[in-house]
Amino acid sequence: MATQHATKTRQFPTRIDLPAEKRERLCEMLNSHLADTFDLMSQTKQAHWNVKGKDFYQLHLLFDEIAEELEDFIDLIAERCTSLGGYATGTVRMAAEGSSLPEYPVDAVNGMDHIEALVERFSLYAARIRQAIDDADKLDDRTTADLFTEISRDVDKRLWFLEAHIQDAE
What is the mean pLDDT of residues 115-123? Predict the structure, then answer.
């Protein structure tokens, strides 16, 4: 366990003008969100692979598109951590261990089951990303805050796309 902690807090020399203590805290935060993002991407792929029902084709494509976007966020988050001199903890096992998201329901089959599961997870993820914007600001890192702002905009849009499937048009 001590080796795992050392890996998560490992720092490399950099000339980025943020103190090492702040960079370490930022990297811990980035790795936490890396785990959530990796987990959310894999859960979205789970929906993509297993969706059934009358809206299969539309949802199959939507879920795949969302997963691809999340994969881009994974790269952005991991690279921000390493650019700060940190060590990105981005394997599937590391993500599973570090994710704050609930496990995906294995009984989700029809499209609306998957939509409901993803809406729940995207709303939790969006709230954590918004908190990360504030946390990065408190650590005087506007660049990381901006990265999380970019992700937040796109995640809110995807949440809207998902929620539109369960909202009534009255």
Answer: 98
